[in-house]
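Hey, weird one. I pasted the ATP-dependent DNA helicase sequence into the form twice and got a warning about non-standard characters only the second time. First submission, copied straight from the form history:
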Amino acid sequence: MPVCCCENYHVIRGRGTSRDNSEETGERTHLRFERNRERAVSGRGFGNNINRRTTTHFTARNCYPALNVPTVTLSSPTICSHCHAKLFHTETSTLCCKGGLVNLPNISAPPELLELYTAQTTEARNFRQNIRAYNHVYSFTSMGVTFDENVPAFNQGIYTFRAHGAIYHKIGSLLPENGARPRYLQMFIYDTEHEVENRLLESPGLHIPTLEKISSILDAINPFVQTFRQLAKQPNLQQCRLLIKERPSFERQYSLPTASQVAAILVGADDFMETNDRDILIETTSGNLISIKEYSGYYDPLQYPLLLPHGTYGWRGDELLERTERTSCCDYYSYLLQQRSNTPSVLLHAGRLLQQYMVDMYIKVETQKLRWIRSHQSDIRAEHYQGLQDCLYSGENDAGNVGRRTILPSSFIGSPRDMYQRYQDAMAVVRNFGKPDIFLTMTCNPSWPEIINELSPGQTPQDRPDLISRIFHAKLECLKDDVFHKGVLGRVVAHVHVVEFQKRGLPHAHMLFIFNDHDRLNSPDDYDGVVRAEIPIETEEPELYNAVLKHMIHGPCGRLRPNAQCMKNNVCKKGFPKPFIDNTTHGIDSYPLYRRRDDDRRITLGRDDNLVIDNGWVVPYNPWLLLKYDCHINVEICSSIKSIKYLYKYVYKGPDWVAFEVRSGQNYDEVSKYVDGRWICPPEASWKLFKYHMYQTYPSVVRLQIHLPNQHQVRFQANQTVSNVLADERNSRTMLTEFFKVYNDGLESTQYLYVDFARHYRWLIPTRKWIKRRRNRIVIGRIYAVSPTEGERFYLRLLLNHIPAPTSFDNLYTVHGHRCATFKEAAEKHGLLEEDNSIRECLAEARNFRMPSALRRLFATILLYCQPTGVRTLWEENHKAMIEDYCSTSTSNNNFLINRLLCELNNIFEQYNKSTKDFDLPRLSDGIQYSVDLPGLIENELSIPISDADLDSITLLNNEQQIAYKTICNSITEGNGAIFFVDGPGGTGKTFLYRSILATFRKEGRIIIATATSGIAANLLPGGCTAHSRFKIPIKLEKVLNCGFSKQSDMCKLVELASAIIWDEAPMANKKTFEILDRTLRDVLGNDKPFGGKVLIMGGDFRQVTPVVVNGTRLEIIRSSIVESFLWPEVKLLKLKENMRARDDVQFAEYLLRVGNGEEPTVENDMIRLLHTIVMPWEGEHSVDDLINFVFPNMQMYNINCNDVEYMETRALITPLNEDVNNLNEKCMFMFPGDSTTYYSFDSVSDDNHNLYLPEFLNSINPGNLPPHKLTLKRGCPIMLLRNIDPKIGLCNGTRLICRRFGRNIIEANILVGHFKGLRVFIPRIPLKSAEDYKMPFELTRKQFPVRLSFALTINKSQGQTIGNVGIYLPNHVFSHGQLYVALSRGVSSHTTRVLVKNYVIEGHEDPWPPPYSLPSSGGFRLEILHSGFALQIPDLNAFLCCSAEPVSI
């Protein structure tokens, strides 16, 4: 049994037992797996213990291969009881004979010919080596085919016959034209004395004795050869013709034909014989080639006389039509390709000719399908126009294209529409479950023992493409069982996989799968537990070492092998060799950069001393899977959503097309284009002949019809009358109309959207009705895609995706009691479409509120963010309303007021490095000046009001604060540049200290620039602004050297005049932000001292959350801290210890400090005990409601008209994850009184010409930096701003506000906290772009109000705030450093703080550890980092802070 070390995911702990169900088999096992998987998705059946697992769960994570991982071995083959065929793992008699329904005679061969196929003599081996050439010189028809000559030429891997395009069999005349040598059937008739010489001219190098032996065999048993020999003896040969006949329908199916049955000799022009359209009449010397139809019975024996020496007829196209015992073409050839011990198979010993035969026969199958499609174009187009298929191109419904284009429908596997549908199905899975976690590629190993053991003497794997496909299929099923069902990498809740075939013919499977939320891979530390990209040490892991060298080394290519197939323009397309890297990090695009250390090992591959490789050549792998399956298994982490586009494009590229382009236009033949671009190899042909699945998606996707009223598809027989068709009630039923009927008849009370309806109901095709599902099966609904160019159908689809439980089309037409004329009008009235004049309407709504000051800022915001057209028109319509509050006298003229307005707008624009000159606005009038000479930024700083409370606070400072205050003030007064760090736990009065310093020096007319890392913290400082916004620090820090302002800018003048800079919550910022600001200030101020000689006052608490490093390792997080910067040795440390926030509750304050310092006692895995007084017991989901009622008591009675700002200001729920924040906000909004107003966003993606990203997929994207697509608000509810709109008045990212009034295009709100508390502002819709860190395959633009509900906040967002009544909800344990401490320290006492923990069971404890509410220690995480060698080797927080900073003492 394998032994592995399974990581404890995040800090979640749980206990559970499971029994080994490995003996379960068949349907029972399958159902059990499906039930468990559905429970994993829905969360049902696992209780509070989210880590309950089977015995194999996580087996492949953090595995130690040295402890013996067993290689998977397939069970012994079984024998079919009907046809005696050998069946491999998971195969049933359906594969070979359809459970006894197919019964065909075996293809026999005389002993002399069979000896050539099986003997190990020199003659037999030469025959098999050149069998395609031998068959070619004896075939009666020519074969037109293009095959890849490069594949066997590379001498790498196995030989494969890889065909391109169509295959044609053609037959010529009986005699060659004058002067030409005889070919094909002519060699049996003309110049037979030199027959051997003629055959050698066709294929030189063949052995003459073998040719003579074959000729004698065919002369004796082949009816076609016998007929041709008889024809050669005709004295009047020049007047003869040959009629090759189809087998009569009354003949016993597939019986051996005689010479008289296969052909007839016609002598003279008047000779007549009754023929049908499948018979071929061959002229004596016509010079024309006749194509053999693939559905003719003689198609096979004319081309393959060595495989069918008795002239056995192949499958006939009319078998499906004329016989009651139906045998399809695939069933026929699947039967022939079986391995039966009682009868030797000529086919399975034919080697390379078998490859050609299998490709030929599969193309025959596909050609018949394409012929049917071409002959039924009218039906296909009718189906397409009625909305049953996805619309692939814009304008495809143009009537001008009717009858001119040949469409390849979505029902044809591999067609563009099939690929598009599967792509949209996969995107529907992603929309419901999130981005994929793992991209796995498994490639067949032709040296598997199960393949080698089945080969006959002298055979190689390339001789048995059927065996390669079948064994790979069996191994793939085992892998799917391990990964999808047993969860060896984690619980898989959704997956997509496809099977493709390499150029050299080996099958490989691509798998994308998505883990349960609790099993997801979130950091490089998690990645290292799944994927390795290094060569193991041979002495430590010998088996893995050999496996990696055998299967997981790329190429080599480059200078080691310049002619490798992966080389393009002298560069490897895959990027090998990869660079060395000591630790796994995130890549820029799709995959992480895996750990590849340069350990100085260089390993020689094989016998070639020039092929020396190192860790840079290793393809990423999982050790457990590699050892178990003994083949190439590439495992990649999908570290970003940005990888989806590449992954799905790669997975769904379809058949191996050379250059396949689908486009609209007249006279365009998609069938021909498909055939011209097709490549088929033998394993692929056998895979499809055996009817193995090429694709699979879980959960299944139900595609929902969409059509306009009375425009759905109706199927009927040609002999039916129109009245009868219309009278049939079934013809009026569609998925959509019956969905309406369910709600119209009151059969369902829950209001579902159309796409969600399929989860609870299933569609019965026979009755054409929806019935309720008995079992809650996991399925996904998806409405067929519609192009925006289709007008009304597109708007109908938009309505169906947003309006639940409609009862009819008329119901969708009706909005607020008004019946709209079109679906477009209805969508506009629902707010689902942006109106053309939305910006003008927004300003008009604001004018009606008669708030000129807010209107001015709104006008500036729109110009800055919305990029409107017609700016001058907007100015003319609104400038009078914007100056209504300006004091005017009879002597003041209008130009003066306009100049004043322009100056004020310019002041706002300057914050964003813009001016009124950047917009189509009037210029300042000459001779009339309103503004002062100071730049706007400096004027704003000097005009910040100073409150009496801040001036009085100086006398209220405690001793520690007094020491810090005097130290900082002395340094500012003396003008000596210095860097201070005010360290204090939450509640020690850091903000109180900053406000005192600001009041002191601003009273003197000095400038102190107040900034903070977060918007919430910045709002608490008068004139505060986020540091990124104030100093123009770029969001992306990797390749940036300086801030975004220059020496000539107003920002530089402001910094020159500033006496000091305050930066609150500094530990939350990446050290690079400080280093960039330091470099910039040194440059623009011309001073090489730190920060250009300015006094910098940083503050914060290292006990709280660290800088955000997206999915970063612990090492990356520690190295991003300011203490790791070269600037830290210059820092002077000032300490605050007395908790002012919780000084009325000393026990609570001391507890907080112990938690922050990591001194609170812990049990295993850094779990700590919470205070009894703050714990709220978990008694079920209703406990969440109890927590809400504690924080927001009597919320249902909240009077939205009483302006009780204090109620909302002092209350909030906090929780670690955005998902839980959204859930809590939804609950609170439901409980909150009043009528709701819903706003929908307008989402778009640039350059999506093929409609790849459907609106509902874009709507489902909900990153934390963007507002939700559906924003539901009520008057009086709290919201939080998501963008820095106007920092001058406190509108920063994180600012909390209260909604007051709602317009169609505007929200009026009051600022809830901070220096500008109570200020009334307007918030417009603005276009917001997705953050690059979210890693999507496109840039999403969402036009929406930049706010979210803020009843609940994330713990990170709450940092820096004091919340009088706080509820902490922890559905799972906190997952990063400092989170628990931050959450607890928001409260002011144990009486007003409550913690609700859902999953509190400690693994290894039979009874819950008293009391039964426990959490991981925040300090424990930090100390674990410090003690593990990643960072500073110091035992406590004080040493951590003081190791290089200079302490200050007075």
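That's the output from the first submission. The warning seems to come from a hidden character in my clipboard, not from the data itself. The domain at 941-1141 is CATH 3.40.50.300 (Rossmann fold).
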